[in-house]
From TrEMBL:
Alphabetized CDD domains for the sequence: SDR_c
Name recorded for this polypeptide: 3-oxoacyl-ACP reductase
Source lineage: Bacteria, Bacillati, Actinomycetota, Actinomycetes, Kitasatosporales
Segments traversing the membrane: none
Pfam families, alphabetized: adh_short_C2
PANTHER family: 3-OXOACYL-(ACYL-CARRIER-PROTEIN) REDUCTASE (AFU_ORTHOLOGUE AFUA_6G11210) (PTHR43180), SHORT-CHAIN DEHYDROGENASE_REDUCTASE FAMILY PROTEIN (PTHR43180:SF66)
Keywords: Oxidoreductase
UniProt record similarity statement: Belongs to the short-chain dehydrogenases/reductases (SDR) family.
Length: 271
């Protein structure tokens, strides 16, 4: 097994990666930024052909170029565009082995149930939950024909835990992703298809950094709940996705795969 060093966006070396995905084709939605981008880099470093789907043409193209993959402009709420995304993967590389259905939004007008209007509610449900339904519906027929495949749907730790700092539609959408992933994992298990929900804790993204730089109290209120004492790096999520995508996780199915620094296990955290 050959190894190489994966380099993060900041240029710091990460854990050496195995080449577990040589010859496999991975479709990633939301590949232009954050967790999706870090995962595109990681899966490519492990040998996969990566198809980068994103609504943002500039960011998506840049990601695809960097990892030597293919860019497909896609709005994940549109059934035809989602079908075209997976068809492009199959037509270009001959298989659809991994689907990382990851694109999602958390807009500011999704807040407490008392303040969140129906339009804001519906938009978040469409982008975060309906999209996962569409992507799974498009990916599964290819995987059934192959008798093999790994689907990873991005949920969140808030699918498991309540937050007084509510984003009501976001939380409900992620609960839906979790339940849908579990059911699909059970339904298609004997056809060689595994379906898992990835549940990240808060990730150190530029948006989060900006928000907390303006409001350190808000950052502290969240950090106190994390036993590890820091937010996750996108590369740490990418490493978990690479595991779930590979045969190393061959008996991991229909789970809520938490990568949350221990938040969901904590009662009192260290000072
Ligand atoms: N960042 C966190 O703290 C965190 C924590 C838990 C879960 N998540 C989830 O992880 C996933 C990725 O989050 P991130 O922080 O990397 O986000 P991000 O905003 O950095 O990236 C999301 C990407 O999705 C794309 N996108 C948005 N709407 C789209 C659409 N309709 N069609 C196609 N692409 C679209 C964006 O252009 C962007 O490139 C999301 O599902 C998010 O809910 C994030």
């Amino acid at each position: 097994m050959t190894e190489e060093t994966v380099t993060s966006s900041e240029g710091s070396p990460q854990t050496p990666a195995c080449r577990r995905l040589v010859g496999r084709t991975a479709v990633i939605t939301g590949a232009g930024s954050g967790i999706g981008l870090a995962t595109a880099r990681r899966l490519a470093a492990e040998g996969a052909h990566v198809v980068c789907g994103d609504i943002d043409e500039t960011a998506g193209k840049k990601a695809a170029e960097e990892v030597g993959g293919t860019f497909v402009k896609v709005d994940v709420t549109d059934a035809e565009q989602v079908e075209a995304l997976f068809k492009t993967a199959y037509d270009t590389y001959g298989s659809v082995d991994v689907a990382f259905n990851n694109a999602g939004i958390s807009p500011p007008d999704d807040d407490s149930i008392l303040d969140t209007g129906l339009e804001a509610w519906k938009r978040v449900q469409e982008v975060n939950l309906t999209s996962v339904y569409l992507c799974c519906k498009a990916a599964i027929p290819y995987m059934r024909r192959q008798g093999k495949g790994s689907i990873i749907n991005t949920a969140s730790f808030v699918a498991r835990m309540g937050a007084a700092t509510s984003q009501i539609s976001y939380t409900a959408s992620k609960g839906g992703v979790l339940a849908m992933s579990r059911e699909l994992g059970v339904q298609f298990a004997r056809e060689g298809i595994r379906v898992n929900a990835l549940c990240p804790g808060p990730v150190n993204t530029p948006l989060l950094q900006e928000l907390f730089a303006k409001d350190p109290e808000r950052a502290a209120r969240r950090l106190v709940h994390i036993p590890v004492g820091r937010f996750a790096e996108a590369e740490e999520l990418a490493a978990a996705v690479a595991f779930l995508a590979s045969d190393d996780s061959s008996f991991v199915n229909a789970t809520d795969f938490l990568v949350d620094g221990g938040i969901s296990g904590a009662y009192v955290t260290p000072l």
